[in-house]
Structures are given as structure tokens and as C-alpha cells.
Design goal:
The chain is an alpha+beta fold. Helices cover 19% and strands 37% of the residues. It has 2 domains: 2-83 and 266-290, Immunoglobulin-like, CATH 2.60.40.2250; 105-250, C8orf32 fold. The protein has helices at residues 105-115, 125-138, 147-158, 172-178, 183-195, and strands spanning 2-19, 22-24, 34-44, 47-53, 59-65, 69-82, 160-161, 180-181, 201-208, 226-233, 237-242, 247-248, 253-259, 268-269, 272-273, 279-290. α4 (172-178) crosses α5 (183-195).
Length: 303
């Protein structure tokens, strides 16, 4: 499946401001399931761009600016080929009393940052919800459903999806109290829940290609960025789980970046110097177009 993706981020200011360095995580990393065919990055005002790999191996563009401006526009264009994902085969059965996966000693050393919960649980609200979901499913009709799927389906069925333009993610306890959240809020709740069952999980940002065979299950709009989780399944590796749309290992999820916590995988982050209230507005738009099967030949190049 070949796709053309255009991601535009535009900040408007009430007066010219000076821009600090910006970190842009907009380019995926090539792998067996995703291949970059072409890429382009345009920034206004003109910026000097240097590329690095962050601690997770994500390609990161560091943009530095010499001129002030009353608008900052970042346009990322990608042409990529998406292959099939690894479908999980080995996660624990719900009939088993032991929910924790069996990681090898070597895996556990590498996975330790993704095993440790990164948010508190004052009042045991999250722990109580996990216990309730697992207990309800254990006495329900589908005893063969594994604990990961039970938590995934509980979020998809029991929480409303809401588009939020505010920066950051909700704490899991707040999402539980509101029973609603954006894709990143629902993914973060799911990640922190499965970590408490002993699974290594990481936060993933990217896009959702809207040409799904079952569009009724898709709740997140395709005109925005998307977020989901990946869980490390023994012998299967990192597998995608999207609680917003109840998707597992689905090739319509287009991965761009991953991190231990959501704020380390933000597509655009940076600063500006200007008077209070100078930021007038933010626009984010994503266009994804499927290309013909005989799309462009592979010719990767630097942005």
C-alpha cells in the first residue's frame, strides 16, 4: 500500500516573534513494515535543519531560525509504502491466572523503561478499574479473551472519543473520571494499564489511513495526527494496539515515532520569545492519499 502524506502545522502570532530551536519528529524510520520512498520538509521562516537520532532511534530534525516572523509553518511531505504488521500469537490466555508475560533476562534489561509505569495512581483508581475490567470479563461470555484485548475493548467500548487541541495528555486518572479523551489520552491510559500487568508498552505517534474495511469502528479523524500503543509480545516483538479504534496490528496505522512517554514523541515542539498572548492560533492538517499500485519507484533522499 503506497501513500502520500502531507502534514501541515501552522502557528499564527499577533506580532513578529523570535523562534527558539524546534524539534520536529515527522519522518518515520525505515523498517520491514514501512519503507520511505520520498520525503520533503519545508519550513517558513527559513530555518537551518540538522538531523539526529534520539534515544529511541527516531529521526529528529532540529530547526534553528535567524529571522523573526508572525507565522511559523512546517510542511512535511512523505511518500511511503506500508506493508503488513506482525500479528500477535503468543500473549497470555485469559484462562491463565498468570497475566505477566515471560520475558527473557536480556529482554527485561532492555525493556525496563517500558515496563515501569510513568504516572501515579493516587486512590488506586487505575488499579481498581483494571481489576474491574478483568473480573467482569472473567465471568463474562468470552473467557478465552486475553487481558490485553479486554483492556483494549473496555476502552474502545466504554470511553467517548473527543478531539482535543490542547497540548499534552490527560493523566490516566482524569481519563477514567471523564470517561473520555483524545486518541493520545486513550492510548496513554491503555499503556499505563498494561504496564501494571507486567507488559512492556510504548507510546506511538503517526497517522491513521482512513481506507478501512470496517469504517464503523474508526472514531479518530484522518485529518489529524494519531496515537496508539505498541506492546512487546514474547516471540512476536512490538505489536500495535489502538484502543481508540480497537485495531490490532493493522497496516492502516502509519508509525512515525515512539517513546516511553507521550511528551517525548511530540511531532513539533519548540519555543518563541514574544509578548504575552502573542500566539494567536494553531492549525494542524493532514492529507493522506492512496497511490496506484504502480506508484513511484523507490528513491529515498534526505529532506
Amino acid at each position: 500500500m503506497d501513500l502520500s502524506i502531507r502534514h501541515v502545522t501552522t502557528y499564527h502570532y499577533g506580532c513578529p516573534v523570535e523562534f527558539g530551536p524546534h524539534r520536529l519528529i515527522l519522518r518515520p524510520r525505515d523498517s520491514f513494515d514501512l519503507r520511505i520512498l520520498d520525503t520533503r520538509l519545508d519550513i517558513q521562516p527559513i530555518a537551518q535543519v540538522e538531523w539526529i537520532h534520539d534515544v529511541y532511534g527516531n529521526p529528529v530534525a532540529i530547526a534553528t531560525f535567524q529571522e523573526p516572523g508572525d507565522k511559523l509553518e512546517i510542511v512535511s511531505e512523505l511518500t511511503l509504502r506500508r506493508y503488513g504488521s506482525t500479528f500477535p500469537r503468543n500473549h497470555a490466555s485469559a484462562r491463565s491466572a498468570q497475566f505477566a508475560p515471560r520475558y527473557s533476562d536480556g529482554e527485561r534489561i532492555v525493556l525496563q523503561p517500558f515496563l515501569a509505569p510513568a504516572s501515579g495512581d493516587d486512590g488506586s483508581l487505575l488499579a481498581d478499574w483494571i481489576h474491574q475490567v478483568l473480573a467482569e470479563d472473567l465471568v463474562g461470555a468470552e473467557l478465552g479473551t486475553d487481558p490485553i484485548s479486554r483492556l483494549l475493548n473496555a476502552i474502545h467500548a466504554g470511553f467517548a472519543y473527543a478531539v482535543r487541541y490542547e497540548e499534552g495528555v490527560q493523566a490516566p486518572a482524569l481519563t477514567l473520571s471523564l470517561r473520555s479523551g483524545s486518541c493520545r489520552d486513550l492510548a496513554w491510559l491503555f499503556i499505563e494499564a498494561v504496564r501494571r500487568l507486567g507488559y512492556a508498552a510504548r507510546f506511538v505517534t503517526g497517522y491513521l489511513h482512513g481506507d478501512l474495511s470496517s469504517p464503523d469502528t474508526m472514531r479518530a479523524p484522518v485529518s489529524l495526527t494519531h496515537a496508539w500503543a505498541e506492546i512487546f509480545i514474547p516471540e512476536d516483538g512490538w505489536v500495535e494496539f489502538d484502543p481508540t479504534n480497537a485495531l490490532v496490528a493493522d497496516p492502516h496505522l502509519i508509525r512515525v515515532a515512539m517513546a516511553r512517554v507521550p511528551w517525548e514523541a511530540s511531532p513539533v515542539s519548540g519555543s518563541f520569545v514574544g509578548p504575552a498572548g502573542a500566539l494567536g492560533g494553531l492549525f494542524v492538517g493532514v492529507d493522506i492519499v492512496g497511490l496506484p499500485d504502480d506508484g513511484p519507484a523507490e528513491h529515498p533522499r534526505a529532506a
